[in-house]
Amino acid sequence: MSIILINQLHKLIEHGEFSIGFVAESGEIIHAKRAICTSWHSAGRTMNIKFLDSKEIRTIRRCTIIAFNDQEVAL
Predict the structure, then answer these.
(1) pTM of the full predicted structure?
(2) CB of 26 within 8 A of CB of 15?
(3) Phi/psi at 11 (5° precision)
């Protein structure tokens, strides 16, 4: 498994659909197999993602992302 640096995510997310894994506030690891980014807040360090299967939109902190397209994400 290769590693992606978190500061490279904004370039990769622009390409449309992706899979992502992140840690929720509860500590649960959430995996979205099909998602898109609806907005990217560079000053606030958050992003909104839409789960394509459920149509749910969630705001996540970028520092909680642990996987992107089956690759590990590192700070």
Answers:
(1) 0.87
(2) no
(3) -70, -40
